[in-house]
Design brief:
Length: about 375
């Protein structure tokens, strides 16, 4: 026989919502009691993992430096055997005619097979870098909103830690592990431990002839940024670019031979990257960007937009490689942490240091396959 709660249950337990409220209250009381016990020392939990030492990070960093210097980028360097490090290693081995390995180690952060790799180019793994006035000159105020950013003359690095991290293709947290207590107030003359990669030179990009004078994502399909050759007259017939949206890797090939690879972020299910065969129209350096929510989210241009100035914190970074598809390009980013881990608005996004290297290889007419 079903119990009659109207007789046996308290007044606050007579209806389902009252019962739910009571259960939530009890759970909150229990959690509060546990929290109080922790404060009183009655319970203890293991403390957070201790910071890694430079020696502990060295094996993974050595592989990342080796791959980065070989133009098979693992993305941001972080001293871990992560997903893109393994993917870059597999593509590097394929470029040498070896059979591809499994996509990822069996165990998280497990050491992949590095047999046969010549690490002489990655020796030493870490070097000491002296911060310069030129580094600090790339840092400035950065507006908190799109509207405020549109009023600036440029979009610089927000602090010296971000500038140095990008210069050495690194994660800021990684540099903080290498330089405990030094990354919060960096000044010229400071000595920092950094990975031994070829430094990304922002000044070299800035000193190049500017690309389009208009916002790069607002070009008409008939326009050729930088006076690049028409799309049907390629300068280099054997060079091609291939973007695998599933693996999140971009490959540069000469004929059938892979010569470089970079991790990318591609479009989402809502704003997909355009699958198909395209061609490079041209390259714009330090571009402006037309920030139009309607265009970004739905592919339709509106009159409500903000024109964002150039700089490393521009949404398309320091380089825009225009495809013969309006509003679509291969470009940099203001957030290297997002590479491979969040969706773009249909374009193909790379870290600034990687897109700068890619831009030195491609010219108008080079085919780009997105598949």
């Amino acid at each position: 026989m079903k119990a009659d709660r109207s007789v046996h249950a308290p007044w606050w337990y007579k209806t389902p919502w009252h019962a739910e409220l009571a259960q939530v209250t009890i759970r909150m009381f229990i959690k509060g009691s546990v929290f109080a016990a922790v404060l009183m020392g009655g319970l203890s939990f293991s403390s957070a993992a201790s910071p890694r030492t430079k020696e502990a990070m060295e094996p993974a960093t050595r592989l990342q430096v080796f791959l980065d210097r070989s133009n098979f980028s693992p993305g941001k360097l972080d001293g871990r055997f992560g997903e893109f490090t393994v993917k870059a290693l597999n593509l590097y081995r394929q470029s040498k005619g070896e059979q591809p390995k499994p996509a990822a180690p069996a165990k998280k952060d497990a050491t992949p097979d590095v047999t046969g790799l010549d690490f002489s180019t990655a020796t030493p793994v870490f070097i000491t870098y002296t911060v310069t006035d030129a580094d600090l000159a790339t840092v400035g105020e950065l507006g908190a909103t799109v509207e405020l950013k549109a009023k600036q003359k440029s979009l610089p690095y927000k602090d010296a830690a971000e500038a140095i991290a990008e210069k050495f293709h690194s994660d800021v947290d990684f540099l903080e592990e290498l330089n405990p207590g030094k990354m919060k107030a960096i000044k010229a003359g400071d000595h920092l431990n950094v990975p031994n990669v070829e430094p990304f030179d922002l000044a070299a990009v800035k000193n190049l002839t500017p690309g389009s004078s208009t916002a790069v994502n607002d070009e008409e399909d008939t326009t050729e940024p930088n006076g690049a050759p028409p799309a049907d007259k390629p300068d280099t017939v054997t060079l091609s670019v291939s973007v695998d949206v599933k693996s999140g890797m971009l490959q540069v090939q000469e004929g059938a031979h892979i010569i470089a690879a970079y991790p990318v972020t591609v479009g989402s299910a809502h704003t997909e990257s355009p699958i198909g065969e395209w061609k490079v129209k041209g390259v714009a350096k330090m571009p402006n960007f037309r920030y139009d929510k309607e265009m970004l989210n739905h592919g339709k241009r509106s009159g409500d937009f903000q024109l964002l100035p150039p700089g490393p914190n521009n949404p398309v970074g320091v380089m825009w490689i225009q495809l013969n598809k309006k509003g679509i390009g291969l470009h940099g980013t203001d957030d290297p942490d997002s590479i491979g881990r969040s969706a773009s608005h249909g374009c193909v996004r790379l870290a600034n240091w990687d897109v700068a290297r890619l831009a030195t290889r491609v010219k108008g007419g080079v085919p780009v396959s997105i598949h």
